[in-house]
Amino acid sequence: MRGTVLYGPGDVRVEQRDDPKIAAPADAVIRVTAACVCGSDLWPYRGIEAIDGPTPMGHEYVGIVEETGDDVTMIKPGQFVVGSFFASDNTCPICRAGYQSACVHREYVGAGGAQAERLRVPLADGTLVAAPNVPSGDLIPSLLAASDVLGTGWFGAVAAEAGPGKTVAVVGDGAVGLLAVLAARQLGAERVIAMSRHEARQKLARKFGAADIVTERGEAGVAAVRELTGGLGAHSVIEAVGTQESMMQAIRSARPGGHVGYVGVAHGVELPGEELFYSHVHLHGGPAPVRRFLPQLIDLIWNRKIDPGQVFDLELPLDAAAEGDTAMDERRAIKVLLRP
């Protein structure tokens, strides 16, 4: 099969790889209908995150089940499925508490490289969620968004305790940040402040429900949020970048007693203990337990209550995957959908 492989910074190739096979009784093999480039892929693409030799790329996927192992009972060949980037059994105590991304048996699905024609998914019954039927083509982008960026933005909003009567600020205008705006509004937030410098992303944030746009960053961004909230700060802040600046901007934008949901993959982030102590700000985040939310998200998408697929503003064939990475690296695209 064809699949993408990262050889080094800026060096993405589409090449022939071995077809995946059932390796354990709980596995499934799916034919990938659509995959995509993730903002987190840019860390190794830019050389900021080291890789140990040629690395298959991609961890977001939807597709048709082709084959299942002997222990798989809930997922059937022919079903259209959405899965998460972490495989989980969905039965361990951690999964039952809603943190499938920390399952005691978790496996990283991305190790197999979802930017490919086929993908092996471990722990299929606990990882994959079947759609009611094979969807129409216009629903594919939104269902693909559910596999990571929508689920991650949703977790960020839940972790920040977005809800009725709350003002929510979102730090980051990538796909996760934009879908955190959508999630906050779906959870009933009264007001959402999106922090973005880019006109196209600002427009999409407003379309998803943002009432205000803050273009400043750092301390200037914090001051702007406080000005919009009567000097207090937001009740809820969602951090969707993963840098030192973005994390501190998120913490300082929250009011005392407020909540920060951080879902940007952290790189070089160090938190000042004394400042946190006196801030009275709650912090909660990490790799999103997307599996917790998938049934609800698929239902909302299937019934056309939400349209998160709008974050895909560039679609390419799998063979042009390298162009997709470049477009996102240069911020010419919010998110790139790949068709095998």
- Encode the helix/strand succession as letters: EEEHEEEEHEEHEHHEHEHEHEHEHEHEHE
| Major β-sheet annotation | 7 strands, mixed
Number of domains in the coordinates? 2
Share in β-strands: 25-35%
Shape: globular
**Mean pLDDT rating:** 97
Structural class: alpha/beta
CATH architecture of the largest domain: Alpha-Beta Complex
Total beta strands: 18
**Rg, please?**
19 Å
Oligomer: single chain
Terminus-to-terminus distance: 10 Å
Bin the helical content. Answer: 25-40%
Give the CATH H-level superfamily of the largest domain: Medium-chain alcohol dehydrogenases, catalytic domain
Class of the largest domain in CATH? Answer: Alpha Beta
Q: Which stretches are low in confidence, meaning pLDDT under 50 for 5 or more residues running?
A: none
Can you count the helices? 12
What is the fold-level CATH name, i.e. the topology of the largest domain? Quinone Oxidoreductase, Chain A, domain 1
